[in-house]
Amino acid sequence: MAKLQLKNIRKEYNSKTVPIKDLSVDVDDGEFLTFVGPSGCGKSTTLRLIAGLEEPTKGEVIINGETMNAVPPGERNVSMVFQSYALYPHMRVAENIASPLKIRKTPEGEIEQRISEVVQKLDLEKSLLDRKPRQLSGGQRQRVAVARALVREPEVFLLDEPLSNLDALLREQVRAELKQIFKSQNKPVVYVTHDQTEAMTLSTRIALLYDGVLQQLDTPYQIYNYPANSFVAGFMGSPQMNLMTVNCKGQKAMLGDFGITLPELSEIPSQIVLGIRPEDVHLATETDEEVVTGKVILVEDLGKEQLLTVQVEGGTDKQLRSLIPADQSWNSDQVHLALPVHSRHWFDVERGNRLS
Ligand SMILES: Nc1ncnc2c1ncn2[C@@H]1O[C@H](COP(=O)(O)OP(=O)(O)OP(=O)(O)O)[C@@H](O)[C@H]1O
Question: Does domain 4-235 have CATH number 3.30.420.10?
Fold first, then answer.
């Protein structure tokens, strides 16, 4: 039995606002599960439901086999870390870290011991312990917030966009630290972010939400390489996957003037969505088959690579993006692009579901 279970959760604020439709997810000890999705898809609501800050309209939140629906937040034995740190401004860092233990009337000696362990684990300088939160940098404040969550030794950790207020460099550094720290806790970690890089790098599994509905629940590898539908395909990966609705003619999908062999399908539709990641579209060599030709209309220099946007011949609304090494040269009037068979993703037009 998984440590944390969400069973058929539905959350309605009113008949029109239903941020979670019917969500079931299990999270085991040692798992790092990330809810990811665009703004308003219901990520924070899910976390708040687990913490007990919101009540589900239907369904159950279960921790250690026990239904938590009627258990108030303070008694759920979960720790939550917020984007805004939520530190007490009038308390010193040490008091902030100790606060969940004080509430539980933990003996002073044990509090000191646990603070010293957590300070060491997080590499927090001892000199910071006497400061007030306003005297800390953003990164330090977030470490203190994480320390406060760890010191409590909860059954489940919840983190709501904890890195969003940090600048890009610091975010990368704290991200790596978080991964290490939570790996050693061997408890379920539920993390929320809208940042797909964070989701990919931190998680053992990703739950991608859209409009309150789980689109895919899988490892980062599966989500990236076998997206369940065109929404997942477009959301995960940067630069974004090329996704084009194209007409089918015989056994081919027509990308402008060029026929691309369709996968094996029980029935050939009149239209289909072809997806291919920019890093999989490369400048064609003589051995490539099914080459697509077009004109370069935009070049974005990314340092190590260049991102080309190519207007496909014969398809005014068809543009392909190709990520190629920065030192590769090309003829802007006519580039030939290869779309390797194994890198192609196919989705149905109506629902966007993966076809192969
Ligand atoms: N207390 C509330 N009353 C009514 N509607 C709410 C309430 N809290 C959230 N919502 C709505 O529920 C939906 C989901 O909100 P939620 O905060 O879970 O989204 P999110 O995925 O975390 O978004 P973001 O990334 O912007 O934080 C939104 O449409 C939001 O406006």
Answer: no
Ligand 1 atom with the shortest distance to the CA of 14: 4
Domain boundary assignment for the chain: 4-235, 242-347
Count CB atoms within 10 A of the CB of residue 65.
Answer: 9
Question: What is the value of ipTM here, to two decimals?
Answer: 0.95
- Tell me the Ramachandran region of residue 49: left when phi exceeds 0, alpha when psi lies from -120 to 50, beta otherwise: alpha
CATH number for the domain whose boundaries are 242-347: 2.40.50.140
Tell me the per-residue pLDDT of 185-244, one tens digit each, with 9 for 90 and over.
899 999 999 999 999 999 999 999 998 899 999 999 999 999 999 999 999 999 999 999
Residue with tokens 């030939």, as numbered in its chain: 336
Tell whether ligand 1 has an atom less than 6 A from the beta carbon of residue 38.
Answer: no
| CA separation for the pair 11, 238 (Å, rounded) | 31
- Counting Cα atoms < 13 Å in the Cβ hemisphere of 47 gives 26
CA of 40 to the centre of ligand 1 (A): 5
